[in-house]
Design brief:
It is a single-pass type II membrane protein. By secondary structure, the chain is α+β, with helices and mostly antiparallel strands. It has three domains: 232 residues, Spore Coat Polysaccharide Biosynthesis Protein SpsA, Chain A (Alpha-Beta Complex), CATH 3.90.550.10; 65 residues, Helicase, Ruva Protein, domain 3; 125 residues, Trefoil (Acidic Fibroblast Growth Factor, subunit A), CATH 2.80.10.50. The chain is built from 13 helices and 20 strands. Helices cover 29% and strands 22% of the residues. 28% of the residues are buried. Bound molecules: manganese (II) ion. Manganese (II) ion binds next to loops.
Amino acid sequence: MAMNRLLRKLSLTLAILLWVAAVLYFLVLNKYKVSDLETEGPEAKLSVEEWDDLLDLFEEKRYLGVRRWRPGEDPYKLYAFNQRESERVPSNRVLRDTRDHRCTALHYGPDLPSTSIVITFHNEARSTLLRTIRSILNRTPIHLIQEIILVDDFSKDPNDCLLLTKLPKVKCLRNYRREGLIRSRVKGADSAQAQVLTFLDSHCEVNKDWLLPLLQRLKEDPTCVVSPVIDIINMDTFAYVAASSELHGEISFRVWMCGGSLEIIPCSRVGHVFRKKHPYTFPEGNANTYIKNTKRTAEVWMDEFKHLYYSARPAARGRDFGDVQSRKDLRERLSCKPFRWYLDYIYPQLKVPDESALRSGPIRQRQNCLESHQVEGQELPMLTLGPCSGTELDQNPDQVWTYTNEQQIRQGRFCLSLSRTTFSTFQVLLEPCGDRGGRQSWQRSGKQVEHVLSRLCLDSEATVEGAELVINPCDRLAFTQRWEVPFS
Ligand SMILES: [Mn+2]
């Protein structure tokens, strides 16, 4: 007993010692890194005096004094990040160098091409927008910046953009109606003077030497599209946190199919404020814009695989997606390869659903269909029966279900699942797909749909609100257990 207590005491002491050592190590490391930053080469940086002069002209305090957070206000209301913290963080703060230590030993060619940096924004917080620009001016050899082009996508206050043109290299373009991200970027690109274009978000902070390895790689191979590793700026505290060095960028199949390549350059680091939602609305409504954009991509680029997109996004069926002829022409003109080539040679690790096992469509019981139903304020959609609606060509997305290789009955990210609560284990509802405990496995058995583990059958029971889905002992005579399904 005493031995036990002693051991516990010892291990606790050890844990505390380790913790103290770790904190000290981190502090020392931090200090080292900070002094490292301060001794950056003179050509890379404006002197303090030069900066002071420019900022006197620019009047930073005055710029930041508009629409400031006030005590009592919700600091997340305007921008969906903590505005109060953002305003506390100086525009020229010191960042920890998050690169692998081996990056510091790299040398870059003296004749790198210069770049035009395009930053688009719509009602961005002034504090984050300014910090984005100052971090660029502070951490980039000035001769490599041809210009910083701000594209103001019809923000409420034109001065958010205009006043910043007092900073070196900064230009401002403004849309006189809301155009959206890509048209704004194209506008910036059209007016750019440099050969290399760099697109940045409007709430970033670039880290030490961020641009050099990107330009170096482009010089070696001009067909590349390159990206930094994106570090995380915490939306609550604005702490700058290193992203894991495991690379997980967007793999743009369009670039690969048309003879380019997309590379994430590990020695280039840029921080970005990740948010849980957009603080602004899209020109055609958030869901509509998303569906339209992804549907256009599928229609132009995915060839015979586009039905997989529709299985995953049934809401896109029958939706208008505008004219894509010019995009198809572009694909033709650039002699881009088929989507299948991309799957075979660039991303063979990607598991493409086996077509014979993937079937989708409505699940019918007489004239009624299995249907999902969004309820205001509720996280999970309700599962119910409703009159079948929609046609083969124009299906009702709430009534389209996909049977997957994992024997799930799926719609979007939700799957038919047995209830988790003990007092109603027989209820069937919608939950996020992915349960491995067998609550989401179903198979067809004649006219019935059987829950694989319990061997009970999918059934419906009338309630005051309509119908509830349950499982019951299988009974071939019960009409509520007879289903027409799109899979066998
Ligand atoms: Mn962003």
